[in-house]
Amino acid sequence: MSSVSFMEKLLDGVEIEWKLLGDVGEVTKLAGYEFTKHVYYSDSGKIIALRGLNVKNGSLELKNVKYIDGSEFSKLSRSKLYRNDMLFTYVGTIGEVALVDEDDRYYLAPNVARIRFTNASINPVFMRYYFQTDDFEKSQIDRYLASSSMKNLTMANIRKFKIPIPCPEDPKKSLEIQAEIVRILDTFTELTAELTAELAARKKQYNYYRDKLLTFEEGEVEWKPLGEIGQVRMCKRILKSQTLPEGDIPFYKIGTFGKSPDSFISRSLFEKYKSKYSYPRTGEVLISASGTIGRTVIFDGADSYFQDSNIVWIENDERLVLNKFLFYFYQIANWGTSEGGTIKRLYNNNLRKLSIPIPHPNNPQKSLEEQARIVSILDNFDALTNSITEGLPREIELRQKQYEYYRDLLLSFPKPDEQAA
Protein backbone atom coordinates (compact mmCIF):
# COMPACT_ATOMS: atom_id res chain seq x y z
CA MET A 1 0.00 0.00 0.00
CA SER A 2 1.39 3.42 -0.92
CA SER A 3 1.74 6.11 1.71
CA VAL A 4 -0.91 8.24 -0.03
CA SER A 5 -3.50 5.47 -0.15
CA PHE A 6 -2.73 4.63 3.49
CA MET A 7 -3.48 8.19 4.54
CA GLU A 8 -6.64 8.24 2.43
CA LYS A 9 -7.83 5.04 4.07
CA LEU A 10 -6.95 6.27 7.55
CA LEU A 11 -8.74 9.58 7.12
CA ASP A 12 -11.47 7.98 4.98
CA GLY A 13 -12.53 11.31 3.53
CA VAL A 14 -13.06 12.99 6.90
CA GLU A 15 -12.71 16.72 7.29
CA ILE A 16 -9.79 18.38 9.03
CA GLU A 17 -10.61 21.44 11.07
CA TRP A 18 -7.82 23.82 12.02
CA LYS A 19 -8.44 25.44 15.38
CA LEU A 20 -6.58 28.07 17.33
CA LEU A 21 -4.63 26.52 20.17
CA GLY A 22 -6.10 29.10 22.53
CA ASP A 23 -9.61 27.83 21.71
CA VAL A 24 -8.88 24.23 22.66
CA GLY A 25 -6.44 24.64 25.53
CA GLU A 26 -4.96 26.89 28.19
CA VAL A 27 -1.54 28.42 27.54
CA THR A 28 0.23 29.52 30.71
CA LYS A 29 3.69 30.61 31.80
CA LEU A 30 5.21 30.99 35.25
CA ALA A 31 3.51 33.69 37.26
CA GLY A 32 5.71 36.71 37.93
CA TYR A 33 5.33 36.67 41.69
CA GLU A 34 6.24 32.98 41.82
CA PHE A 35 9.36 33.58 39.75
CA THR A 36 10.68 36.11 42.27
CA LYS A 37 10.66 33.59 45.13
CA HIS A 38 14.12 32.14 44.50
CA VAL A 39 14.17 30.79 48.06
CA TYR A 40 12.13 27.85 46.79
CA TYR A 41 14.95 26.54 44.62
CA SER A 42 17.37 23.95 46.00
CA ASP A 43 19.56 21.07 44.84
CA SER A 44 17.48 18.35 46.44
CA GLY A 45 13.85 17.57 47.13
CA LYS A 46 10.81 15.90 45.58
CA ILE A 47 9.26 18.68 43.49
CA ILE A 48 11.22 19.27 40.28
CA ALA A 49 11.27 22.70 38.66
CA LEU A 50 11.25 22.01 34.92
CA ARG A 51 13.33 24.41 32.83
CA GLY A 52 13.86 24.68 29.11
CA LEU A 53 16.95 22.45 29.20
CA ASN A 54 14.80 19.63 30.61
CA VAL A 55 12.49 19.69 27.58
CA LYS A 56 14.10 18.03 24.58
CA ASN A 57 13.11 15.88 21.60
CA GLY A 58 9.60 15.28 22.85
CA SER A 59 10.62 14.03 26.29
CA LEU A 60 11.61 15.19 29.74
CA GLU A 61 15.33 14.95 30.40
CA LEU A 62 15.77 15.10 34.14
CA LYS A 63 19.41 16.20 34.23
CA ASN A 64 20.74 19.14 36.22
CA VAL A 65 17.31 19.71 37.72
CA LYS A 66 16.38 22.16 40.43
CA TYR A 67 13.85 21.55 43.19
CA ILE A 68 11.41 23.60 45.25
CA ASP A 69 10.30 23.10 48.81
CA GLY A 70 7.34 20.74 49.00
CA SER A 71 5.63 22.76 51.73
CA GLU A 72 5.40 25.73 49.36
CA PHE A 73 4.20 23.72 46.38
CA SER A 74 0.53 23.87 47.38
CA LYS A 75 0.64 27.69 47.17
CA LEU A 76 1.81 27.68 43.55
CA SER A 77 -1.41 26.59 41.90
CA ARG A 78 -0.84 28.58 38.72
CA SER A 79 2.41 26.80 37.97
CA LYS A 80 1.57 23.24 39.02
CA LEU A 81 1.87 20.59 36.37
CA TYR A 82 -0.32 17.54 35.88
CA ARG A 83 -0.18 14.43 33.72
CA ASN A 84 -0.57 15.17 29.97
CA ASP A 85 0.22 18.86 30.35
CA MET A 86 2.37 19.72 27.34
CA LEU A 87 5.48 21.83 27.88
CA PHE A 88 6.69 24.20 25.16
CA THR A 89 9.92 26.21 25.19
CA TYR A 90 9.42 29.76 23.94
CA VAL A 91 12.82 31.38 24.68
CA GLY A 92 16.28 30.30 23.50
CA THR A 93 15.83 26.92 21.84
CA ILE A 94 12.24 27.48 20.76
CA GLY A 95 9.71 24.78 20.03
CA GLU A 96 10.94 21.88 22.15
CA VAL A 97 8.02 19.94 23.61
CA ALA A 98 7.37 17.20 26.17
CA LEU A 99 4.44 15.75 28.07
CA VAL A 100 4.28 15.62 31.86
CA ASP A 101 4.10 11.99 32.99
CA GLU A 102 2.58 12.29 36.48
CA ASP A 103 0.68 14.63 38.77
CA ASP A 104 2.12 16.76 41.57
CA ARG A 105 5.77 16.09 40.83
CA TYR A 106 6.72 19.05 38.65
CA TYR A 107 6.68 22.81 38.82
CA LEU A 108 6.72 25.13 35.80
CA ALA A 109 9.99 27.07 35.74
CA PRO A 110 10.75 30.17 33.61
CA ASN A 111 10.97 30.07 29.80
CA VAL A 112 8.61 27.10 29.49
CA ALA A 113 4.92 27.42 28.63
CA ARG A 114 2.31 24.97 29.85
CA ILE A 115 -0.35 23.88 27.34
CA ARG A 116 -3.29 22.14 28.97
CA PHE A 117 -5.80 20.80 26.45
CA THR A 118 -9.39 21.41 27.53
CA ASN A 119 -11.06 19.96 24.42
CA ALA A 120 -11.96 16.31 25.02
CA SER A 121 -11.46 15.54 21.30
CA ILE A 122 -7.69 16.06 21.53
CA ASN A 123 -5.16 13.35 22.30
CA PRO A 124 -2.18 15.11 23.96
CA VAL A 125 0.31 12.55 22.59
CA PHE A 126 -1.01 13.19 19.07
CA MET A 127 -0.41 16.91 19.60
CA ARG A 128 3.07 16.34 20.97
CA TYR A 129 3.94 14.51 17.77
CA TYR A 130 2.38 17.25 15.63
CA PHE A 131 4.37 19.95 17.43
CA GLN A 132 7.58 18.10 16.45
CA THR A 133 6.89 18.10 12.69
CA ASP A 134 8.78 20.22 10.20
CA ASP A 135 5.43 21.52 8.99
CA PHE A 136 4.59 22.91 12.42
CA GLU A 137 7.97 24.58 12.78
CA LYS A 138 7.81 26.22 9.35
CA SER A 139 4.15 27.19 9.25
CA GLN A 140 3.67 28.19 12.88
CA ILE A 141 6.86 28.93 14.83
CA ASP A 142 8.87 30.54 12.02
CA ARG A 143 5.87 32.61 11.04
CA TYR A 144 5.81 34.43 14.36
CA LEU A 145 9.56 34.56 14.88
CA ALA A 146 9.98 36.23 11.49
CA SER A 147 7.77 39.10 12.62
CA SER A 148 9.50 39.55 15.97
CA SER A 149 12.65 41.57 16.67
CA MET A 150 13.37 39.26 19.63
CA LYS A 151 13.88 35.53 19.23
CA ASN A 152 11.10 34.43 21.51
CA LEU A 153 7.38 33.81 21.41
CA THR A 154 4.73 35.47 23.53
CA MET A 155 1.82 33.57 25.06
CA ALA A 156 -0.41 35.44 22.60
CA ASN A 157 1.66 34.06 19.71
CA ILE A 158 1.38 30.52 21.03
CA ARG A 159 -2.39 30.80 21.46
CA LYS A 160 -2.64 31.69 17.76
CA PHE A 161 -1.02 28.43 16.65
CA LYS A 162 -3.39 26.49 14.39
CA ILE A 163 -3.68 22.78 15.13
CA PRO A 164 -5.44 20.05 13.12
CA ILE A 165 -8.48 18.23 14.46
CA PRO A 166 -9.51 15.26 12.27
CA CYS A 167 -13.22 14.51 12.00
CA PRO A 168 -14.26 17.31 14.40
CA GLU A 169 -17.99 16.51 14.09
CA ASP A 170 -17.42 13.00 15.52
CA PRO A 171 -15.23 13.16 18.65
CA LYS A 172 -15.08 9.38 19.03
CA LYS A 173 -13.84 8.83 15.50
CA SER A 174 -11.48 11.76 15.82
CA LEU A 175 -9.85 10.19 18.86
CA GLU A 176 -9.65 6.82 17.08
CA ILE A 177 -7.80 8.41 14.15
CA GLN A 178 -5.44 10.24 16.49
CA ALA A 179 -4.84 7.07 18.52
CA GLU A 180 -3.97 5.07 15.37
CA ILE A 181 -1.44 7.69 14.29
CA VAL A 182 0.01 7.71 17.81
CA ARG A 183 0.23 3.90 17.78
CA ILE A 184 2.23 3.89 14.55
CA LEU A 185 4.61 6.61 15.69
CA ASP A 186 4.99 5.05 19.13
CA THR A 187 6.15 1.86 17.40
CA PHE A 188 8.92 3.75 15.65
CA THR A 189 10.01 5.61 18.78
CA GLU A 190 9.99 2.41 20.85
CA LEU A 191 12.22 0.71 18.29
CA THR A 192 14.64 3.63 18.38
CA ALA A 193 14.57 3.57 22.19
CA GLU A 194 15.37 -0.15 22.18
CA LEU A 195 18.29 0.38 19.81
CA THR A 196 19.53 3.29 21.94
CA ALA A 197 19.39 1.13 25.08
CA GLU A 198 21.23 -1.63 23.20
CA LEU A 199 23.88 0.89 22.17
CA ALA A 200 24.33 2.03 25.77
CA ALA A 201 24.79 -1.60 26.85
CA ARG A 202 27.31 -2.22 24.06
CA LYS A 203 29.27 0.89 25.05
CA LYS A 204 29.52 -0.41 28.61
CA GLN A 205 30.66 -3.75 27.23
CA TYR A 206 33.19 -2.01 25.01
CA ASN A 207 34.56 0.02 27.93
CA TYR A 208 34.85 -3.15 30.02
CA TYR A 209 36.80 -5.08 27.38
CA ARG A 210 38.93 -2.07 26.46
CA ASP A 211 39.98 -1.61 30.09
CA LYS A 212 40.55 -5.35 30.50
CA LEU A 213 42.60 -5.68 27.30
CA LEU A 214 44.77 -2.71 28.25
CA THR A 215 45.39 -3.94 31.79
CA PHE A 216 48.46 -6.17 31.84
CA GLU A 217 49.88 -8.57 34.41
CA GLU A 218 53.20 -7.61 35.93
CA GLY A 219 56.09 -9.12 34.00
CA GLU A 220 54.37 -9.21 30.61
CA VAL A 221 54.56 -5.49 29.98
CA GLU A 222 56.99 -2.60 30.29
CA TRP A 223 55.74 0.90 30.95
CA LYS A 224 57.60 3.50 28.95
CA PRO A 225 57.28 7.29 29.09
CA LEU A 226 55.71 8.58 25.91
CA GLY A 227 58.78 10.77 25.45
CA GLU A 228 60.84 7.60 24.87
CA ILE A 229 58.40 6.34 22.27
CA GLY A 230 58.27 9.43 20.09
CA GLN A 231 58.53 13.19 19.86
CA VAL A 232 55.75 15.68 20.58
CA ARG A 233 54.91 17.56 17.39
CA MET A 234 52.61 20.38 16.38
CA CYS A 235 51.94 22.45 13.29
CA LYS A 236 53.52 25.84 12.64
CA ARG A 237 51.59 28.72 14.22
CA ILE A 238 48.89 30.23 12.05
CA LEU A 239 48.01 33.86 12.77
CA LYS A 240 44.39 34.95 12.73
CA SER A 241 45.22 37.35 9.88
CA GLN A 242 46.28 34.31 7.81
CA THR A 243 42.93 32.55 8.13
CA LEU A 244 39.98 32.85 5.78
CA PRO A 245 36.22 32.24 6.22
CA GLU A 246 36.39 30.09 3.07
CA GLY A 247 39.29 28.53 1.27
CA ASP A 248 41.13 25.47 0.07
CA ILE A 249 42.57 24.02 3.27
CA PRO A 250 40.52 23.53 6.49
CA PHE A 251 42.20 24.96 9.59
CA TYR A 252 41.08 23.15 12.73
CA LYS A 253 41.16 24.99 16.05
CA ILE A 254 40.49 23.48 19.45
CA GLY A 255 36.80 24.41 19.15
CA THR A 256 36.37 22.66 15.80
CA PHE A 257 38.74 19.73 16.40
CA GLY A 258 36.94 16.57 15.29
CA LYS A 259 34.06 18.65 13.92
CA SER A 260 33.44 20.88 10.90
CA PRO A 261 35.99 23.66 10.34
CA ASP A 262 35.02 27.33 10.42
CA SER A 263 38.40 28.66 9.22
CA PHE A 264 40.64 27.99 6.25
CA ILE A 265 44.11 28.85 4.96
CA SER A 266 45.38 29.28 1.42
CA ARG A 267 46.88 26.34 -0.40
CA SER A 268 50.13 28.22 -0.99
CA LEU A 269 50.59 28.81 2.75
CA PHE A 270 49.67 25.18 3.47
CA GLU A 271 52.21 23.79 0.99
CA LYS A 272 54.91 26.10 2.33
CA TYR A 273 54.35 25.22 5.99
CA LYS A 274 53.80 21.51 5.30
CA SER A 275 57.18 21.26 3.55
CA LYS A 276 59.16 23.30 6.10
CA TYR A 277 57.61 22.37 9.48
CA SER A 278 56.11 19.43 11.36
CA TYR A 279 53.07 17.83 9.78
CA PRO A 280 51.27 14.64 10.89
CA ARG A 281 51.54 11.41 8.95
CA THR A 282 48.43 9.46 7.99
CA GLY A 283 47.36 7.31 10.95
CA GLU A 284 49.05 9.38 13.64
CA VAL A 285 46.85 10.34 16.57
CA LEU A 286 46.04 14.01 17.06
CA ILE A 287 45.46 15.01 20.69
CA SER A 288 43.64 18.00 22.16
CA ALA A 289 45.95 19.76 24.60
CA SER A 290 43.42 22.29 25.93
CA GLY A 291 39.70 22.41 26.56
CA THR A 292 38.64 18.75 26.68
CA ILE A 293 42.03 17.27 27.45
CA GLY A 294 43.02 14.09 25.63
CA ARG A 295 40.30 14.09 22.96
CA THR A 296 41.76 12.22 19.99
CA VAL A 297 41.33 12.05 16.22
CA ILE A 298 43.22 9.71 13.92
CA PHE A 299 44.65 11.78 11.07
CA ASP A 300 43.19 10.55 7.79
CA GLY A 301 45.76 12.22 5.56
CA ALA A 302 43.36 14.72 4.01
CA ASP A 303 44.84 18.16 3.34
CA SER A 304 44.18 20.14 6.52
CA TYR A 305 46.05 22.14 9.14
CA PHE A 306 45.89 22.23 12.93
CA GLN A 307 46.22 24.89 15.60
CA ASP A 308 49.65 24.85 17.20
CA SER A 309 50.02 23.88 20.89
CA ASN A 310 46.30 23.16 21.23
CA ILE A 311 46.40 20.16 18.86
CA VAL A 312 49.51 17.96 19.03
CA TRP A 313 50.63 14.45 18.14
CA ILE A 314 53.36 11.95 18.90
CA GLU A 315 55.70 11.16 16.02
CA ASN A 316 56.40 7.59 17.05
CA ASP A 317 58.11 4.56 15.51
CA GLU A 318 55.47 1.95 14.64
CA ARG A 319 58.12 -0.75 14.83
CA LEU A 320 57.76 -0.31 18.60
CA VAL A 321 54.16 0.74 19.18
CA LEU A 322 51.22 0.97 16.79
CA ASN A 323 49.41 4.28 16.36
CA LYS A 324 46.04 2.58 16.78
CA PHE A 325 47.25 0.96 20.01
CA LEU A 326 48.14 4.43 21.30
CA PHE A 327 44.74 5.70 20.19
CA TYR A 328 42.91 3.17 22.35
CA PHE A 329 45.22 3.60 25.33
CA TYR A 330 44.75 7.37 25.21
CA GLN A 331 41.05 6.75 25.97
CA ILE A 332 41.92 5.48 29.46
CA ALA A 333 45.12 7.48 30.02
CA ASN A 334 45.51 9.52 33.19
CA TRP A 335 46.63 12.80 31.66
CA GLY A 336 48.72 14.96 33.98
CA THR A 337 47.09 18.36 33.47
CA SER A 338 48.08 21.76 34.78
CA GLU A 339 46.07 24.89 35.24
CA GLY A 340 46.86 27.51 32.64
CA GLY A 341 44.70 30.58 33.26
CA THR A 342 41.04 29.64 33.37
CA ILE A 343 41.30 26.41 31.32
CA LYS A 344 43.25 23.22 31.69
CA ARG A 345 46.24 22.69 29.46
CA LEU A 346 48.23 19.62 28.56
CA TYR A 347 51.83 20.74 28.26
CA ASN A 348 54.45 18.87 26.26
CA ASN A 349 56.17 17.82 29.44
CA ASN A 350 52.92 16.23 30.65
CA LEU A 351 52.74 14.26 27.43
CA ARG A 352 56.34 13.09 27.60
CA LYS A 353 55.82 11.73 31.13
CA LEU A 354 52.67 9.74 30.26
CA SER A 355 53.43 6.02 30.79
CA ILE A 356 52.48 3.71 27.93
CA PRO A 357 52.31 -0.10 28.27
CA ILE A 358 54.47 -2.08 25.83
CA PRO A 359 53.51 -5.79 25.90
CA HIS A 360 56.32 -8.35 25.55
CA PRO A 361 59.02 -5.64 25.40
CA ASN A 362 61.83 -8.13 24.80
CA ASN A 363 60.17 -9.61 21.73
CA PRO A 364 59.25 -6.82 19.25
CA GLN A 365 57.44 -9.15 16.85
CA LYS A 366 55.32 -10.69 19.60
CA SER A 367 54.69 -7.21 21.03
CA LEU A 368 53.33 -5.92 17.72
CA GLU A 369 51.24 -9.07 17.26
CA GLU A 370 49.66 -8.58 20.69
CA GLN A 371 49.04 -4.88 20.01
CA ALA A 372 47.44 -5.79 16.66
CA ARG A 373 45.23 -8.40 18.36
CA ILE A 374 44.00 -5.87 20.92
CA VAL A 375 43.43 -3.25 18.21
CA SER A 376 41.42 -5.73 16.10
CA ILE A 377 39.08 -6.57 18.99
CA LEU A 378 38.57 -2.94 19.92
CA ASP A 379 38.07 -1.93 16.29
CA ASN A 380 35.12 -4.31 16.11
CA PHE A 381 33.59 -2.86 19.27
CA ASP A 382 34.28 0.67 18.08
CA ALA A 383 32.53 0.03 14.76
CA LEU A 384 29.49 -1.36 16.57
CA THR A 385 29.23 1.47 19.10
CA ASN A 386 30.60 4.55 17.35
CA SER A 387 30.62 4.15 13.57
CA ILE A 388 28.17 6.35 11.66
CA THR A 389 28.46 4.11 8.59
CA GLU A 390 27.86 0.75 10.27
CA GLY A 391 26.77 -0.76 13.57
CA LEU A 392 24.12 0.51 15.97
CA PRO A 393 24.70 4.27 15.45
CA ARG A 394 23.96 3.80 11.75
CA GLU A 395 20.90 1.69 12.51
CA ILE A 396 19.61 4.31 14.96
CA GLU A 397 20.17 7.07 12.40
CA LEU A 398 18.19 5.15 9.75
CA ARG A 399 15.34 4.40 12.16
CA GLN A 400 15.22 8.05 13.23
CA LYS A 401 14.97 9.18 9.61
CA GLN A 402 12.27 6.60 8.98
CA TYR A 403 10.34 7.81 12.02
CA GLU A 404 10.61 11.46 10.96
CA TYR A 405 9.45 10.59 7.44
CA TYR A 406 6.31 8.81 8.66
CA ARG A 407 5.68 11.38 11.39
CA ASP A 408 5.62 14.20 8.86
CA LEU A 409 3.59 12.09 6.43
CA LEU A 410 0.97 11.04 8.98
CA LEU A 411 0.61 14.57 10.35
CA SER A 412 0.52 16.47 7.05
CA PHE A 413 -3.13 17.39 6.85
CA PRO A 414 -4.77 19.53 4.15
CA LYS A 415 -4.90 23.18 5.15
CA PRO A 416 -7.41 25.90 4.40
CA ASP A 417 -6.64 27.69 1.14
CA GLU A 418 -5.63 30.91 2.83
CA GLN A 419 -3.12 29.15 5.15
CA ALA A 420 -1.69 27.00 2.37
CA ALA A 421 -1.11 30.12 0.32
Topology summary:
Elements: H1 3-11, E1 16-20, H2 21-24, E2 25-28, H3 32-35, E3 41-42, E4 47-50, E5 55-56, E6 59-60, E7 66-68, H4 70-73, E8 86-89, E9 97-99, E10 106-108, E11 112-117, H5 124-131, H6 134-146, H7 155-159, E12 162-166, H8 171-213, E13 221-225, H9 226-229, E14 230-234, E15 249-252, E16 264-265, H10 267-276, E17 285-288, E18 296-298, E19 305-306, E20 311-316, H11 323-330, E21 338-340, E22 343-345, H12 348-353, E23 355-359, H13 364-386, H14 391-410, H15 417-420
Parallel strand pairs: 4-10, 15-19
Antiparallel strand pairs: 1-12, 2-11, 3-7, 4-7, 5-6, 8-9, 8-11, 13-23, 14-20, 15-16, 17-18, 17-20, 21-22
Reading off the top of the CATH hierarchy, the class of the domain at 19-164 is best stated as: Alpha Beta
How do the strands line up in the largest sheet? 2-11-8-9
**Shape type:** elongated
What is the name of the CATH superfamily of the domain at 19-164?
DNA methylase specificity domains
Helix content: 25-40%
Q: Measure the end-to-end span.
A: 30 Å
Structure commentary:
By secondary structure, this protein is of the alpha+beta class. Among the domains are: 19-164, DNA methylase specificity domains (Adenine-n6-DNA-methyltransferase TaqI, Chain A, domain 2, Alpha-Beta Complex), CATH 3.90.220.20; 221-359, DNA methylase specificity domains (Adenine-n6-DNA-methyltransferase TaqI, Chain A, domain 2, Alpha-Beta Complex), CATH 3.90.220.20. 39% of the residues lie in helices and 20% in strands. It is built from 15 helices and 23 strands. Helix 8 (171-213) runs antiparallel to helix 13 and helix 8 (171-213) packs antiparallel against helix 14. The relative contact order is 0.11. The model has no long low-confidence stretch (mean pLDDT 85).
